[in-house]
Amino acid sequence: MAIILHLETATTNCSVSISRDYEIIVLKENNAASYSHSEQLHVFIKEALKEASLSFSDLDAVAISKGPGSYTGLRIGVSAAKGVCFSLDIPLISIPTLQSIAHQVDLKPGELVIPVLDARRMEVYSCVYDFNYQEVRETRAEIINEESFVEYLGEDKVYVVGSGAEKCRGVLQHPNFIFDESMVPSAKDMVTMASKKYESRQFEDVAYFEPYYLKDFVLQQKKKKN
Predict the structure, then answer these.
(1) Which of 29, 33, 125, 205 is spaced 20 to 30 A from 154 at the CA atom?
(2) CA 142: distance to chain centroid?
(3) pTM of the model
């Protein structure tokens, strides 16, 4: 049975969980208004191991939320994950942040979920998933307007969830859009995906792995301002 440490630091939620064979056995998290990952993450890791009666040597892998999200938060999380993997010589697993949010919505056949993370102004990081949580459209950084996501509207509900949902609510008027800005990325939602990747040996190169920043989009916007 694989024991996996899961780290989520892509947003304000500093979240750590430990799973054993697809089952979460401990969760430590704090969704503070200000980012406090540098102070809390390593404390949460140690507390989670203690509560689970485990030591670092018991871990079989580390799963990290890879982004998109906060540049600083992602750097802190990935650095911690790499440190554990290097010191224990165990594999690193990466989980798309938006996909983990999508798993918080219980979907029926035909329904879609669009997790959106607040970027800046009217921008969000978004991706579109079907009821099997398979990617329908790739992750993008985009400016929300009244035409956003209309191509995915039909007879079924389209859930727009995450920290960017509030700004979407004010622009997207179709009644089939269901908004929920309360959902945040959490290490508890990484367990199933990480466990499946562990079984299929879908590991990252610890030395070269980098978070998914969508940095090109941000640089492009800066150029337009000049």
Answers:
(1) 125
(2) 18
(3) 0.91
What's the pLDDT tens digit per position in 5-22? 999 999 999 999 999 999
Residue pair 29/96 in contact (Cβ under 8 Å)? The answer is: no
Distance CA 139, CA 123 (A): 13
pLDDT in tens, 178-205: 999 999 999 999 999 999 999 999 999 9
72 Cα distance to chain centroid: 14
| Integer Cα distance of 214 and 71 in angstroms | 10
Name residue 43's amino acid: V
Contact between 97 and 64 under an 8 Å Cβ cutoff? The reply is no
CA 42 – CA 155 distance, rounded (Å):
46
Amino acid at 71: Y
| 27, β-bridge pairs | 17
